Each structure stands twice: as structure tokens, then as C-alpha cells.
Amino acid sequence: MSLPKDFLWGGATAANQCEGGYLEGKKGLGTVDVIPWGEHRRAVMQGQLHYNELPKDSYFPSHEAIDMYHNYKEDIKMFAEMGFKCYRFSFAWSRIFPTGEEAEPNEEGLAFYEAFINELLRYNIEPVVTICHFDVPLALEQKYGSWRSRKVIDAYVRYCDVIFRRFKGKVKYWMTFNEINMLMHLPFMGAGIMFREGEDEVQVKYQAAHNELVASALATKLAHEIDPNNKVGCMLAAGQFYPYSCNPEDVFAAMEKDKGNYFFIDVQSRGAYPNYAKRFLERNQILIHMEPEDERILRENTVDYIAFSYYTSRLTSANTDVGEKTSGNVIAGIRNPHLKASEWGWQIDPLGLRITMNSLYDRYQKPLFIVENGLGAVDILTEDGTVEDDYRIAYLEAHIEAMTEAVEIDGVDLMGYTSWGCIDLVSASTGEMKKRYGFIYVDKDNEGNGTMKRYKKKSFEWYKKVIKNNGLN
């Protein structure tokens, strides 16, 4: 057995991490455009430090990123050379609706994405579009407090209506929100939520979550009505939680952590709030404002597939004092003594991908799509213009092998695999350029200096062979 012949091999990026051109073509500011690099980044992402209070000399990496806005033809040509079957990218919402509430969309923004998509299709690369990837028009945050308000649902649905109609027949695969559960961990980055003094932050986060879930369901409904061929997915920052020991309390703690992670996808895939979530809200006296039609909207408009990112597994315990802590994809945990870690402390666990795939498929029985997986590392450009990134090849090779075993041995239904940051881009968590993921090196540093020239790494030719052989070797 092998992967399906129509398996979607490719790579993934996000507009705010690679596009640049942050005010070109009549684009408006997005929430990500006010998140700085450096010591204040995490506080702003958490909604604890207001972006208006930042030092005047703050550097905002998204403003230029790797300038794909002006270089996309060159970049897509390199993706095609690797043999990409698909490319996952995002639209910058504020490029299409600069404030989120214009009477008409910004034609320059739509024309840019149309040209971008046409370039992909010229190389027979299937576009996979994330509708909202940590990128809310800043004006909606300033006017309504972002997703805490149902007004943003209306703005989002109008935005979806425009892009579904404009790109009908050209884009088949959509995702409503990137890593929707990140709202709970980095509220401003994930959903544009900036907290006000004295308010109940948990209440605000769950109200925003509900509004996003309703918006996702309405977008799914609209996508299917406009084009029955559309496939709409949700997207989760995934990674199984392991218990620190076989102590039943640790096992239970891991189960609880997993449920907290699954909450959004349970609603998007199953169409209703799970009982554990209802009990949690009751116990914590969290009262979510719902409109009479919300439950029906959620129930009738579930997603077609489950997309997720996987970088690492997580380890947890009922005892908060146990074990050495380590980093992860924003969600920190206990260091697993059985695993090695990346330079940023993200533990490397290929079997964890297979475990996560089994858990998700057993839970939802819908096709899965791995839309982010990769290794962030410090790459050294050699004098002959390449990067000897054998460490990246080893990471990806082990994860692709585990992924293939989940399909061939365990029977998991998997649509495709897009490695994260197929071209070097700005790190979402740290705002760095030196934390590189790509098969293509971009000459730029953390401070924004560099030529922007692109170079093929050793992993470029390796991934080209993987795609050509459909993962067989």
C-alpha cells in the first residue's frame, strides 16, 4: 500500500508572515501588523499590553516580511519545481476589506489574489486558502473589540461571500480559521482580543470563541451554497497530551488537556457544544450570549475535513511542580525525557504525529489534512549559496514515515501534507527570521536587514524526490 495517487503534497505559509506590502494596494492595517518583534511581543499577543503603548522605535516584521507581495511569481515557480500539488496560504482580510466594513471590497486586493491564484493554477498547483490566519482588520478591533462582538460575524460572512464568489471554480479547499484554539492561549494574535481593565478574561475568550464558531458555520454554509464542490475545513493546533506517569491523576490530567484542545473542533465537526464544555461553562459561571438560531446553524453546517498543525507532543501532570518545563507551539509543557528537542525547545516526536492522527480520526471520522509540520532551526548559508540542513530532512523524513504508517497500517483517511514555512518566513511565536523552516532560504535577518534573495537548501531537492515518489522512499 502507499499514499493515494491524488495525495496533496505541498507547503504552507500565512499572509502576515510572508506577504509584506502591508499598506500597498489600498490594504488596511491588520491586527498582526501592530505586533512587534522583541521583548514586548508576547505581552501584545496575549492581549495584556496595548499596541498603542509600544515604544516608538518598535519593529513590526509583518510590514515587509519576505515581500512575497512583489516576489510571488518567483516563489511559486520554485514551489512548482519541487513538484507541489497544492499550496496552502492565507488571504489578508484587510487587503480585501481594509476596515472590514466597506460597502464594496477593495478591487486591488482581489486582483492581487486572483493573479496569485492564477499563477498557482498555471503550474497545476491546487490553492488551499485559509480565510482568516491571525489577521483581523484592525479597525474591527478598535470599533467593536474584534470577535467579542457579533458585528464581526457579519463582517466575516460578507468577506467570505465576496471571496467564494470571486474565486469560484479556482479555489476548492478552504479553512475558516487558522489554529482556532490559539484564541485561548494568545488572544490578541489568535483573534484580535485586547483585554480591558477589570473584565473577566475567560468570559471574553469563550464569547469570542462562540462568535468565531458561528461565523465558521455560516461560512461553511455559504461555501457549499455558492459552489457544491467547495470543501471547507476547520484547523487545530494539535499535539497529543501524554500523562507524566501512570498515576491515574496524571492520566486524567492529560485527558482534560486534550478535551480543552478539542473543544473548537468538536463543535465544528460534530455541530454542537460537547457536554464537558457545557459543564465547564456552568461550573465557571460563564454565560455565553447566543442568538436563537445559533444552535441550528452549528448543527447543520459542520466541516468537510479536519486540518491541523503538528510540531510536537505535550507532557502534563496533575502535580504542577513536577518536571522541567519546555516550550512548544505556544503551549508549554513538561520536558519529556524520552525525546530530543529543537533549538527552541520544541520536542521532536514523530510517533506523536501518528498518535495524534489516530486520535483525531477516531474522534471525528472525517478526512484529515496535515497543513503544518516542520522544524524551526538556525540555518547557515554556505559560500556556494545553499544550506546543509540534514537536521530538517531527518525531522521531516521521520514525520512523513509516521504519517504514512498512520494511513497504511492504521487506516487513517488523510488528504494531504503541507510542510510549514516551505519558504523561510517570519516566525509567528517569536517574530524572528533566524528561526527558519523552509526549503528555500531567504536572505533577511531578525532586524529586517538583507537582500531578500532566495536560495535552495539541501532539503529542496530532497522534498522534490519525496513528492515525485509519493512518499515511498
From TrEMBL:
Family to which this protein belongs: Belongs to the glycosyl hydrolase 1 family.
Name of the protein this chain belongs to: 6-phospho-beta-glucosidase
Catalytic residues as annotated in Swiss-Prot or TrEMBL: 372 (nucleophile)
GO terms for MF: beta-glucosidase activity
Cross-referenced InterPro entries: GH (IPR017853), GH_1_N_CS (IPR033132), Glyco_hydro_1 (IPR001360), Glyco_hydro_1_AS (IPR018120)
Cell inner membrane recorded as keyword: no
Keywords of this entry: Glycosidase, Hydrolase
Gene Ontology cellular component annotations, sorted alphabetically: cytosol
Spans through the membrane: none
Gene3D superfamilies from the UniProt entry: Glycosidases
Organism for this UniProt entry: Anaerosporobacter mobilis DSM 15930
Matching PROSITE patterns: GLYCOSYL_HYDROL_F1_1, GLYCOSYL_HYDROL_F1_2
Keyword Hydrolase annotated: yes
GO BP of this protein: carbohydrate catabolic process
